Amino acid sequence: MTVLKTSLRSFFAHKWRMVLSAMAVVLSVAFVCGTLVFTATMNTTFDKLFSDAASNVMIAPAEEDGESTFDAAPANGVPETVPGGVVDEVAALDGVEQATGALYATSATAIGADNDNLGPATGAPTLVANWSEIEQRTMELVEGDEPQGPDQVLVDSDTADSNDLAVGDTVRLLTVFGDYEMTIVGIAEFTVTNPGAALFHTDLPTAREMLLGGADGFSEIYVDSDGSMSDEALRDAVAQAVGADAYKFQTADEYIEENQDEIGQVLSILQYVLLGFAGIALLVGIFLIVNTFSMLVAQRTREIGLMRAIGSSRRQVNRSVLIEALLLGLVGSVVGFGVGVGLAVGLMALMSAFGMNLSTEDLTVAWSVPVIGIVLGVAVTLLAAYIPARRAGKISPMAALRDAGMPGDVRAGRVRAVLGAVLTVAGLGLLAATASVDEAADGAGFLSLGVLFSLLGLILVGPALVGLVVRGLSAVLLRGFGPVGRLAERNALRNPRRTGATASALMIGLALVAGLSVVGSSMVASATEEIDESLGSDYIIQTSNFTQLPPQIVEAAEGVDGLASVTPALSVAAEVTAPDGTTEERNLAASPASFVNEMRLDAAEGDVAAAFEQGGMTIASDWAEENGVGIGDRLTVAFEDGESGELEVRAIINTGSAIVGTWFVGTDTVEAHVPAEAMPLPWTLFASAEEGTEEEARAALEAAMEPYPQVDVRDQAEFKELVQSQVGQLLNMVYGLLALAIIVAILGVVNTLALAVVERTREIGLMRAIGLSRRQLRRMIRLESVVIALFGALLGLGIGMAWGAAGQQLLALEGMPVLDIPWGTIIGVFIGSAVVGLLAALVPAFRAGRMNILNAIATD
């Protein structure tokens, strides 16, 4: 009880010194809890959507194995369907109250009166469907009328609001079967969440004309029971009546579970990614907490010595420090949980801004969330405080009374330094080993262990490097500030372990930034080099969200004067069987023979041009070697939605040498095995201008594409910029998430300096008494902060570039051979670290400058 009282008294006496450590716990726990609440709310929201929409029994198209084949955006732009007559057949069965058909597809594009794409800015799909009772389960008409007739359409309220659409406005719906001008006659609002898509509803005949070319079919059939039998019994009865192997049959529970699993897989990836960054922030927070308790224990050395002198055992002193850590962890975790719920609400608001409306009524906070948050926060805090607590227990009463300071606090132990050096060298060796592997999968283990060992090694050896690196930085940056600069240097060198721990927190975040920058820059440089070496076409035509191109766009491009060639590139799924019987599924790229002029393929063997002729194909060199396949061998290729055939290998393409792939067949070959109605739509058009007419051809091509705002026409330079922007956007998202860890690291610098100011109160008073001005004092603290931040930056950026270089070695095996160090980013981050050091020192320097000289000297 005495230990508890002492711990509580000490905790509240030093509560303001622990605020920044508590902030690290709060931020990390908030990120974890916010992620869990947000993903749980997303699951709840979609569960409600599926539950409200489902009927007792669901019928969908199926293959022979009974698995559903329905795809709202199929390769040929036409959704798989169940024949319309099945609805009447099912409706007549005993136990069925009603059977309703629904037809929908996401292969359409909606275009406004101002020729703007009405699809969501997020790249989510545009869905066209028939308006039926099924839609009315999740939507209600709030303005206008239901659509009736071939030129009437109903739009969801979110799409109407974001595009300023109103009843009476005209829109165009572009599908594979035509370009339809429609008038908005109604607006419907979601009664559950908007899944983020833009929805356009027509009547059933119009939907069939637009999506199926007038064919009689439904995407799904919803069967409602009259309550006379269970859903399972009704499902079996329906299956027996219409053919158990012909379609896919599910009860409402099975339908909901399947959709939950599909959404859950996506949300799980998001959850794991966010929790990974939260884990990084927690790791950084450990350094902050270790430093805090180390410094607090050092400042209370005499107090602890007195406790030991009057009879407190080592265990009691140890327990006293851990109780303070427990209180810190509890308070920080509880606050972090509350902040995490607020963060989840903020993420929901952000999703709403992007078109997916999530209601706070669906906010899901499971009992496990606060438990996980509090247990995690407390465990991390206790773990971080354990080492300082053990050191406190080792303080002898006589040493404490002599104010000798904490044992082992002056320099890092030799064992730690040696172990850190060994781990660092071992980690760098493993990173270097990635250059010796033949396959990326084989090198992944080397990379992972290399990152882990090198990181742990630098953390351990960091204090031993303080003297060398800080003196080097000081010689360049601090010596010019005279005695103030030398004082700042000595302060940074005074406690290598503390300086090393503070810098290590910043090192982790910056190492990840540097590593990802190198990987991202190398990806862009490799893609750019590949484009320069292989792309021969003048223009690349794609949709803004990289969906398939309907026939109207292809025909418009082919009709442009001044173009020497227009080459569509499409993808077809197939099962390939090698001569030895090995079978695997592949997506084959298909194009006409003109493709060899648009893209220069790096062939290891054979004639690429011949491979695009009837009956030929190309394969990848690694697959050819692995399966013993050579030029002239014949492979059995079973085309999806088509027939099987034997194709001759006429060229072997070096693996990873082309951004468009290595497995190719000619369009004529695909057409010979796949029915015309099942032929995939192209993803890209490559176009080349006639010599000397590049500017005129570009202008004519853009004019031809003007009615299709979803289409972008790019030349090679613009295509390179697209690759760069895509990688840049991904990196920016990652950097944004890493900012949490860097913020925690900055808090660590602030905390270290603030506690160091308290620790050196008497020293500061004496320096002020002998003539050090307030301005010089503040400059000294700022310079100390800068050199600590730059020390962390040097270690982090150095090891991060090593990580990135090793990662690029594995990317080289996947066709990205260029190593590119983004020196501009690296130098910018290094300079930014100095700025961070300056900002982190503002408050501690200000407080030091305000000290009363006499009171500071009199401090015990």
From TrEMBL:
Compartmental location: Cell membrane
Ranges for domain MacB-like periplasmic core: 19-240, 499-703
GO molecular function: transmembrane transporter activity
InterPro entries, A to Z: ABC3_permease_C, MacB_PCD, Macrolide_Exporter_MacB
Domain ABC3 transporter permease C-terminal, chain residue ranges per copy: 277-397, 737-853
Coiled-coil segments: none
Protein name per the record: ABC transport system permease protein
Source organism of this protein record: Streptomyces marincola
Lineage: Bacteria, Bacillati, Actinomycetota, Actinomycetes, Kitasatosporales
